[in-house]
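User: Hi! I'm working on a homework problem where we have to compare a predicted structure to a textbook description. Could you give me the structure for the chain below?
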Amino acid sequence: MRKILVTGAMGQIGSELVSQLREYYGTSNVIGSDLWKKDGEEGPFEIVDVTDEKAIHDAAKKHKVDTIMHLAALLSAKAEAVPKIAWDLNMGGLINALEAARDLDLQFFTPSSIGAFGPTTPKKNTPQKTIMRPTTMYGVNKVAGELLCDYYYYRYGVDTRGVRYPGLISHVTPPGGGTTDYAVEIYYEAMKHKTYTSYIAQNTYMDMMYMPDALNAIIQLMEADPGKLVHRNAYNISAISAAPEDFAKAIRKHIPEFELAYDVDPVRQQIAESWPDNLDSSAAAEEWGFKAEYDIDKMTADMLTKLQVK
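Assistant: Happy to help. Predicted structure tokens:
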């Protein structure tokens, strides 16, 4: 039975991933960790600062885990506001977690992102292997992180694995400072006020994914036969390529009076324009069977249903 330490367990992905992993592997086999712990947290949990190498190592050793899923990071828009802090957290935390995995002989997962690409990357059907010259600190961190995970695999034999996430959409976790967060906010505002003002401009396409597909991809990749993994640390995965008006169209099928306006944020718009419209995820499909279940209409129906209950 797998035993897993999850860093960043209170974050956008971690808060939902820990719950799903506990359903899959058992509550006692999934140890959440973060700088803080929410009230009523069930299951094992450790307060861990990922910039403290010893803290990660000690938590992994204490619970005798065989896997680290490292999610602690500062997201794109927030990272641009404090780039030095972003570097220290995103890169310092990653190498500390990798060192724990190396020393304790653990399997390792960390996500990359479409943020790893830049304005010179092909925007349509972005290849698995292509030019990567990001213009944000978050993007620089992600490219460096992909290479660092490759290094630990080739140099030390650490079983590192990862995906390049598109923008993630969830009805559970509120937006957390990402450029694609408008695609979460729009659903909340549609339910509450039947109107939304987008900080991303019309006709700005970005790759998106519903959180259930994102979580399933992690488990599927970590359970995959290592002998079939060629790219290993940075698989493109893709589900929905959409602009703000596409979300509005899908929402109007359920809330006909919904209205969409625009007040473009230059910083986040510039970041959005540097990212791909959609990714070629054929390598993930061929090597470990990735396939997204949710398109924009199926996701929208589920999002609005869940938010109505919430």
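For your comparison, note the following. The mean pLDDT is 94. The chain has two domains: 4-166+211-236, 168-208+240-278+294-309. Good luck with the assignment!
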